[in-house]
UniProtKB/TrEMBL annotation:
Gene3D superfamilies xrefs: 2.40.128.330, Magnesium transport protein CorA, transmembrane region
Pfam families: MRS2-like
Organism, as annotated: Panicum miliaceum
Family membership: Belongs to the CorA metal ion transporter (MIT) (TC 1.A.35.5) family.
Name of this chain's protein: Magnesium transporter
Annotated region described as Disordered, given as residue ranges: 1-56, 390-426
Low complexity bias: start-end ranges: 17-28
Topology in the lipid bilayer: Multi-pass membrane protein
Biased composition (Pro residues): 40-50
GO cellular-component term (any): membrane
Length: 426
């Protein structure tokens, strides 16, 4: 027992001591022969997976815009849809109405803070204080810009604000709001463009149809076809603008949404009322101010409703006047088309008459040729050599004469070489 417990006892076996086990394992690893495994072929390098989540969208291209406010200030700048949407308060999706894909679809779209106008060549966004015009350097848009500058000359901001306050105190609401004036100028420019195009087409139609009545040729017919195509496209444009104006006249809610100045004034009044209510709530003891504030608010509401009714009536009269102009242009286009159709009917009648004359002449030729053929048939029938009994004796005599002449012709011929004469011996 003492040997087992003492220090001089037997050492533990090597597999129980950690050092021994480590040394043995290391020794066994070192003593093992090194075997190199065969190298496996490396897998092909695969391209990295595309990162769809991190891909950025293409930035919208910047376009040329012009800004003009009610005081005559004007500037031209380049920007994209995001900046225009932020400035005008219109959603980016709604700006596609004035894009290149929907440029041929006239629309007057009313939103909370702006009006989106797309009428033929005029593509603009109108707010209560300014107008943003797309592509202001186009040839068709320049006259509209000149009208805007003439209608809204450069003014001083303070002087114009003071004049506006004096007009509101005097109750003068004859002048249309800024957005209605811009809409009127846009409709006027479109109607003038339709008038000028129709006048040019009318003059061209008179000249082309006169040439066609004088000479029906392929060139003149091609010019008439081009004229009809231009008239059809013009009529389609007038119809679209006319239908859009009629849609506004038929829906009073849409016309009410066009009144941006009234909505802006109402929002300012609501903010002022909220501010005054907050001030009154801080002083509950002063109840004498409640009644005057109620009277002021009631008076402001009556004034605002009167202004709204007046402006709504003016807008309705404005839209009706331009609706009548567009209807008159449409009627003129229809009259020009009817004139072209009448001329085509006249040309068809002339061609039918000429065709009938050719058919008649052809029938006469057929009759004449038939008569000549009959005469030829009769003459040929009488000129045939038909045998009959009276010719038998004549035939026998001719045969006997031939028999007697044959031996005479068979005799020799003797000639004199000096005189050149020949004698026949029988």
């Amino acid at each position: 027992m003492g040997r087992l417990s003492g220090s001089g006892g037997r050492k533990p076996p090597p597999f129980l001591s950690p050092t021994a086990s480590f040394s043995s394992s290391s020794y066994s690893k070192r003593s093992r022969p090194f075997r190199r495994l065969p190298s496996l072929p490396k897998p092909p390098l695969t391209p990295p997976a595309p990162r769809f989540a991190g891909r950025r969208r293409k930035k919208a291209s910047a376009r040329l815009w012009m800004r003009m406010d009610r005081w005559g200030g004007c500037e031209v700048f380049m920007c994209d849809k995001a900046l225009v949407a932020e400035r005008s308060g219109v959603h980016t999706r709604e700006l596609s109405v004035i894009g290149p894909l929907l440029s041929s679809c006239p629309v007057i779209l009313a939103r909370e803070k702006a009006i989106v106008i797309n009428l033929e060549f005029i593509r603009a966004i109108v707010t209560a204080d300014e107008v943003l015009l797309l592509e202001p350097l186009a040839q068709e848009v320049i006259p509209f810009i000149d009208k805007l500058r003439h209608h809204f000359p450069l003014k001083n901001l303070e002087v114009d604000a003071g004049a506006t306050q004096m007009d509101s105190l005097d109750g003068n609401h004859d002048e249309l709001p800024f957005e209605f004036q811009v809409l009127e100028l846009a409709l006027e420019a479109v109607c003038l463009s339709f008038h000028s195009s129709l006048s040019d087409l009318n003059k061209h139609a008179l000249f082309v149809l006169d040439e066609l009545t004088k000479n029906v040729s392929t060139n003149n017919l091609e010019r008439v076809r081009s004229l009809k195509r231009n008239l059809t496209s013009l009529l389609a444009g007038v119809h679209k603008v006319r239908d859009e104006v009629q849609h506004l006249l038929d829906h009073n809610e849409n016309m009410a949404q066009l009144h941006l100045s009234w909505k802006q004034t109402k929002n300012q009044q609501d903010q002022a009322l909220l501010a005054s209510a907050a001030i009154n709530s801080n002083f509950p003891s002063k109840t004498s101010l409640a009644r005057p504030n109620h009277i002021i608010n009631h008076a402001m509401g009556i004034d605002t409703s009167v202004a709204l009714d007046t402006d709504a009536g003016n807008l309705e009269m404005l839209l009706e006047s331009y609706f009548m102009q567009l209807d008159g242009i449409r009627n003129r286009i229809v009259m020009v088309r009817e004139y072209i159709i009448d001329t085509e009917d006249y040309i068809n009648i002339q061609l039918d008459n000429q065709r009938n004359q050719l058919i008649q002449f052809h029938l006469i030729l057929i009759i004449v040729s038939f008569g000549i053929a009959m005469n030829t048939l009769i003459a040929a029938s009488f000129g045939m050599n038909l045998p009959h009994n009276g010719d038998k004796n004549t035939a026998e005599q001719t045969s006997q004469q031939l028999k007697t002449r044959q031996p005479m012709e068979a005799g020799p011929l003797v000639g004199d070489s000096r005189t050149g004469s020949r004698h026949t011996f029988i």
